[in-house]
């Protein structure tokens, strides 16, 4: 399933295989299609063109709309959105704790009000596994509690202990569902999630506990939620030695180009973030020369592409002046072109990281680009 091909320091170059899409080359950036589509008018077919290897969708949102039973009836999420590559679904835990109101956490799970219409919903480990089984994703994430930051030590400790117990229940239910004769994807994998807020000792304790449960991979969750980047790096440094070396490692919801480079340097294999699509929809574009705010007046008559070194669909065909005009005219095409560009950049970033690892030059790559890609072009 996962093989480390070579290392440079703690950075890992690997290959990952699952039920759909052949072999994924790691480190990999996963493109976030929360509700089965990338925000900005980007379809699954577009993802192929921008180099996406894994698409990520959200359990919470798809459970609410259109409903995971409808997705199952339509043949699973792959058929529903016409994507033949790997799909990871997150557990819904983060959305339950960030979007839903009137939450009540118990050992059984969480009762909460839908952010759409307020109706009451219960989700626990078994329910999350059942929803993700209906979706038929290749990787299902365990149901966890993502605590608020900052959190008290006492609450974070209790939450870690509960999340560890929830993982045992996730594993048991996941195994049961995969064994059913009518399961959408009997090859679905399960990743456990490390929590513990910004307390290094809790993070290490929790990682040691969940590593005892035989998951297909392990994620570090609950970071990039407002803490300084250096604190995030310190937590990764503390947790990484306790993560199984033969399983993929996933840093959830991260992040900037620099965060990804620094995460790879600390032994992380999988990344995802809404930043490329969200920033793109607001006119902030990533390039190898730095960031471009396409709304700036200086681009009104600029005939160049967003980046002359980029091969994305937007840069191959359109000028900065035209894309700026689309934004100013509130044309939906502006969002689509900007998001396609940013997703291409992030996938190219991961590809260049892999190439540097293949060539043994990742340290030079890190020194050149980490911290520089977010400066203004």
Automatic annotation (TrEMBL):
<dbReference type="InterPro" id="IPR002616">
    <property type="entry name" value="tRNA_ribo_trans-like"/>
</dbReference>
<keyword id="KW-0671">Queuosine biosynthesis</keyword>
<feature type="binding site">
    <location>
        <position position="144"/>
    </location>
    <ligand>
        <name>substrate</name>
    </ligand>
</feature>
<dbReference type="GO" id="GO:0005829">
    <property type="term" value="C:cytosol"/>
</dbReference>
<feature type="active site" description="Nucleophile">
    <location>
        <position position="272"/>
    </location>
</feature>
<feature type="binding site">
    <location>
        <position position="312"/>
    </location>
    <ligand>
        <name>Zn(2+)</name>
    </ligand>
</feature>
<keyword id="KW-0328">Glycosyltransferase</keyword>
<comment type="pathway">
    <text>tRNA modification; tRNA-queuosine biosynthesis.</text>
</comment>
<feature type="domain" description="tRNA-guanine(15) transglycosylase-like">
    <location>
        <begin position="10"/>
        <end position="370"/>
    </location>
</feature>
<comment type="function">
    <text>Catalyzes the base-exchange of a guanine (G) residue with the queuine precursor 7-aminomethyl-7-deazaguanine (PreQ1) at position 34 (anticodon wobble position) in tRNAs with GU(N) anticodons (tRNA-Asp, -Asn, -His and -Tyr). Catalysis occurs through a double-displacement mechanism. The nucleophile active site attacks the C1' of nucleotide 34 to detach the guanine base from the RNA, forming a covalent enzyme-RNA intermediate. The proton acceptor active site deprotonates the incoming PreQ1, allowing a nucleophilic attack on the C1' of the ribose to form the product.</text>
</comment>
<keyword id="KW-0819">tRNA processing</keyword>
<keyword id="KW-0479">Metal-binding</keyword>
<feature type="binding site">
    <location>
        <position position="195"/>
    </location>
    <ligand>
        <name>substrate</name>
    </ligand>
</feature>
<feature type="binding site">
    <location>
        <begin position="90"/>
        <end position="94"/>
    </location>
    <ligand>
        <name>substrate</name>
    </ligand>
</feature>
<keyword id="KW-0808">Transferase</keyword>
<dbReference type="GO" id="GO:0008479">
    <property type="term" value="F:tRNA-guanosine(34) queuine transglycosylase activity"/>
</dbReference>
<dbReference type="Pfam" id="PF01702">
    <property type="entry name" value="TGT"/>
</dbReference>
<dbReference type="GO" id="GO:0008616">
    <property type="term" value="P:tRNA queuosine(34) biosynthetic process"/>
</dbReference>
<dbReference type="InterPro" id="IPR004803">
    <property type="entry name" value="TGT"/>
</dbReference>
<feature type="region of interest" description="RNA binding">
    <location>
        <begin position="253"/>
        <end position="259"/>
    </location>
</feature>
<feature type="active site" description="Proton acceptor">
    <location>
        <position position="90"/>
    </location>
</feature>
<keyword id="KW-0862">Zinc</keyword>
<feature type="binding site">
    <location>
        <position position="341"/>
    </location>
    <ligand>
        <name>Zn(2+)</name>
    </ligand>
</feature>
<comment type="similarity">
    <text>Belongs to the queuine tRNA-ribosyltransferase family.</text>
</comment>
<feature type="binding site">
    <location>
        <position position="222"/>
    </location>
    <ligand>
        <name>substrate</name>
    </ligand>
</feature>
<protein>
    <recommendedName>
        <fullName>Queuine tRNA-ribosyltransferase</fullName>
        <ecNumber>2.4.2.29</ecNumber>
    </recommendedName>
</protein>
<dbReference type="InterPro" id="IPR036511">
    <property type="entry name" value="TGT-like_sf"/>
</dbReference>
<feature type="binding site">
    <location>
        <position position="315"/>
    </location>
    <ligand>
        <name>Zn(2+)</name>
    </ligand>
</feature>
<dbReference type="InterPro" id="IPR050076">
    <property type="entry name" value="ArchSynthase1/Queuine_TRR"/>
</dbReference>
<comment type="subunit">
    <text>Homodimer. Within each dimer, one monomer is responsible for RNA recognition and catalysis, while the other monomer binds to the replacement base PreQ1.</text>
</comment>
<feature type="binding site">
    <location>
        <position position="310"/>
    </location>
    <ligand>
        <name>Zn(2+)</name>
    </ligand>
</feature>
<dbReference type="GO" id="GO:0046872">
    <property type="term" value="F:metal ion binding"/>
</dbReference>
């Amino acid at each position: 399933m996962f093989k480390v091909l070579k290392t440079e320091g703690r950075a890992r170059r690997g290959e990952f295989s699952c039920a759909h899409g052949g072999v994924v080359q790691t480190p990999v950036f996963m493109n976030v299609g929360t509700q089965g589509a990338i925000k900005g008018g980007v379809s699954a077919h577009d993802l192929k063109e921008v180099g996406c290897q894994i698409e990520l969708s959200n359990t919470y949102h798809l459970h609410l709309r259109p409903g995971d039973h409808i997705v199952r009836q339509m043949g699973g999420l792959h058929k529903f959105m016409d994507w033949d590559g790997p799909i990871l679904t997150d557990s819904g835990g983060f959305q339950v704790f960030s979007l839903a109101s009137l939450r009540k956490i118990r050992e059984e799970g969480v009762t909460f009000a839908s952010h759409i219409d307020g109706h009451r919903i219960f989700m626990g480990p078994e329910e999350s596994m059942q929803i993700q089984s209906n979706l038929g994703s290749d990787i299902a994430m365990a149901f966890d509690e993502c605590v608020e930051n900052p959190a008290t030590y006492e609450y974070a400790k209790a939450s870690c202990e509960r999340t560890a117990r929830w993982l045992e229940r996730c594993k048991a239910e996941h195994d049961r569902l995969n064994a059913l004769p009518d399961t959408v994807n009997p090859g679905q994998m399960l990743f456990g999630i490390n929590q513990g807020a910004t307390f290094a000792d809790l993070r290490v304790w929790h990682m040691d506990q969940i590593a005892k449960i035989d998951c297909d991979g392990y994620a570090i969750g609950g970071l990039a939620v407002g803490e300084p980047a250096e604190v995030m790096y310190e937590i990764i440094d503390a947790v990484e030695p306790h993560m199984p070396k033969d399983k993929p490692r996933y840093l959830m919801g991260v992040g900037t180009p620099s965060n990804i480079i620094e995460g790879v340097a600390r032994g992380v294999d999988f990344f995802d973030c809404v930043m490329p699509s969200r920033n793109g929809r607001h006119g902030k574009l990533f390039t190898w020369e730095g960031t471009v705010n396409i709304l700036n007046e200086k681009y009104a008559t600029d005939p160049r592409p967003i980046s002359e070194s980029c091969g994305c669909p937007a840069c191959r065909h359109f000028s900065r002046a035209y894309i700026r005009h689309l934004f100013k005219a509130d044309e939906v095409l502006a969002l689509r072109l900007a998001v396609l560009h940013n997703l291409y950049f992030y996938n190219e970033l991961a590809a260049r990281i892999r190439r540097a690892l293949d060539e043994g030059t990742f340290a030079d790559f890190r020194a050149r680009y980490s911290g520089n890609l977010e400066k203004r072009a």
